[in-house]
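Risk mitigation, structural track. In case the binding assays with zinc ion fail to produce interpretable data, a predicted complex structure has been prepared as a fallback.
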Amino acid sequence: MSIGLDIGGTKIAGARFAKGGIEEARAEHPTPDNYQSFLQTCRIVADELGAGPQIGVAMRGVFNRETGLVEKDSVLPYLSDVSLREDLEKVLGRKIILENDANCAALAEAIDGAGAGYKTCLGVIAGTGLGSGFVVNGEVLIGANSFCGEIGHIPLPYYEDSDGDKVPCGCGQVGCLEKLVAGPALARLYKKMVGRNCGTHQMAEDAARGDADALRVLDRYYTVFAKAMVVALHSFDPEVIIVSGGLSGLPGLYEEVPKRWGRYAMAKQPKTKFVPARYGPKAGLRGAALLVTHL
Ligand SMILES: [Zn+2]
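Fallback model:
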C-alpha cells in the first residue's frame, strides 16, 4: 500500500494504492488560501487515507531537492520560500518524499502506463504550461540541478514568425517552448491567424467537426509542436514521448507531429513513438505514490 498527494492550485488530492497499483481510496479538498490551513489540509487528506509512515508528494514548480525549500510558487504564493518538506513532516508526522509533478507523471506512465516496456520515456504535460520528466529504466532522471526535462524553458528551435509571437516567460527569458506550445500559446496563435479569440477546448471541438479555421491553426501548431519535440529527440532521444495535459486530446496530434519532426531531426524518420498518456491527469498522484514504493 502506498499513498500519494498531488498539490494543485485548486485542490489537494490524495490516493491510496494497493500492491499492483490498484487505486483503493481517494480524498480531495480545496486548496486553502494560507499556509497553516494548507498544512492542516494535507494532514486531513493523509489521515483520511490512513497513510503509513511515508508519503510521496507531487508538486509544481521549483524546490530544492536537498532542503525541501520551495524557491518560488507563482500559483500559491504562500508556498514561496517555505521549508515545505520539513513543515509537512512536522504536521503530518510522516516522512515526505517531494517530487516535481511532471516527474511524478512521467514515472507513473513509465512504470505501467503508456511507457511500459520502454527503457527511455519522456513524459510531457502540455496544458497551461509545458512540463516534462525523463525516466530511464524506471527511474526519474534528476540531474545535477534538478533541471532535467525542463524543455519548456529552452527557446523554440527553427523559429519562423508564423510559429507565433515570442512573449516573455516567467523564467525571465523570451521565446521559450512553453510560450509557443502550451495552451495559452495555441490560443494566441489562433488569434494571430484568425483574428478572433478561441479557447483550446473549443478549437479541438471545431477541428473535430472539420472547421477550416481551427484546422488551419492546428496545422501550423503541429509543426511548432514537432519542432519542440526535436529538442527532446536531440537531447534525450527517448524511445517514447508520452503526452498528457489539456492539449493531449487535440485531434490529429499523434499522427501529425511525427509526420513533421523528421523535417528538423537528424533522422528523417525518427523511431520514437509519440503517444497519449494512459493515466492522464491522474498520473501525478499515481507517480507520487510510486515515489514511496519505487525509490
Ligand atoms: Zn521560460
